[in-house]
Each structure stands twice: as structure tokens, then as C-alpha cells.
Design brief:
With 18 residues, the protein is mostly helical. The protein is built from 1 helix and no strands. The longest helix is centred in the middle third of the chain and has 16 residues. The termini are far apart.
């Protein structure tokens, strides 16, 4: 489901790019 993927991405991607 797109909603779960979106939440997971926002939870994991920001710290990686920072």
C-alpha cells in the first residue's frame, strides 16, 4: 500500500541523507 511505503520512506530516508 502506497501509504505504508510513504511513511516508511519518510521515516528512513531523511536520516540517511542527513
Amino acid at each position: 500500500n502506497p501509504e505504508a511505503l510513504d511513511l516508511d520512506a519518510h521515516a528512513v530516508l531523511p536520516p540517511l541523507f542527513r
